[in-house]
Structures are given as C-alpha cells and as structure tokens.
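Entry type: protein chain
Record version: 2
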Amino acid sequence: MQRLVDGVQKFQSHVFSAQRHLFEKLAEGQNPLALFITCSDSRINPNLITQTDPGELFILRNAGNIVPPYGASRGGEEGSIEYAVSVLGVEDIIVCGHSHCGAMSALLNPEMAAPYPAIRNWLDHAEGTRRIIEENYKHLDGEFARQTAAVEVNVLVQLDNLRTHPAVAAALAREQLNLHAWVYEFETGKVFAFDSPAGQFMPIENILRVPRLHPREIDI
C-alpha cells in the first residue's frame, strides 16, 4: 500500500505540476476518442498501449473483456456503453483481448471456475466462445493453442454481443460508429486487429498495407 501512496505523492509533485493545463482542461468535461473495452487483468494498461492521455479513452474493464448481450445482466456494462455512444458520442469502440487470459482458461476448463459461482455465472456470457472452440477447433494441439484461439474468437463474439445494444445498433445504422477487434500480446507488445475482408487477425501496423504478410488466421 505504501508504494501506492508514494506514487500518488510523486504524481502530485511531478506529473500533475508538469501537466497542470491538461488536468485543468479535463475538469471542464470529457470528449474521448473511443470506448475501449478490455480485461481487468492488471498487466494491461490501455493508455500505455495506445499512448493516449487522460481523457482520450473511455475505458470499460471486466474479467475476459466480456460484453453481455443487451438485457442479459442489467449490469454496469450496459450503462457505460450507452453513455459512451449516446452521450459522449464516441465514433469507435474497441474490444481488446490479451494473451494468457485467465478468464479464457477458465472458460475452456470449467473445473477451474467450479469453486467460484460469481465467476461461473459471468463466464456464461462467453458461452458462444467456448462452443466455437469446442466444436470448430478440435484440430488445435495443446492448451496454449486453444487459449490463444479462444482469446481471438472471444473478441469477435463480444463484438456480436455489442451489436445487440440499442445505442450501438442505432449508431451503426447511422454509420456514425465503427467497431474494432484487437488482441494484445504481453510478451511481444504487439497488437493484432481483425481485418474483416481478410477474415484474419493481422498486426495492427500492417492492417492497411498490402500484401498482407504472416496473417494470423481465424475460422469461425
């Protein structure tokens, strides 16, 4: 705990004082560039990955970067999504999964979550991901390969869930909103984005380039 307190003091004495104008501006309101939906995993820092400042991302985090279908949970996810789209007017929503995701491991191995009823119930919102891996990825060899596929598939499944939210559906119909599927790798620092025309996850820096080299394939 002391490390956190020391960090606050360092922020106040060094960071805040050096960027006082930015923080004073933030007090006037927020105008984020995007809604960033990602996992609660402590190893992910959305602002660090995207090199954005405070106020530039509206961030929604939970275990497994899960978006329950509209009306399925009546939780904070619904309100946060509606606020970001209808009030803040974000034009982009990113669902970002990550490598070595514990939620995906528990999803694929239900015995891991058996002692934890709240976790079991939450992972039900990713049942589509589990079924896709179980029924369509029998050829994968090893737990790591299955988990990696689950991470990628789950991002796409959650985007489908996102489309059930009325605010999102309406904005998509007006062509005022774009949805993006990303996966972040801890061990390499790389971010992969789903290229819809190619049907593949690609290194994000190559997503608009041709020819596309070394694609990460996905088949749902």
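Comment: Confidence is low (pLDDT under 50) at residues 210-220.
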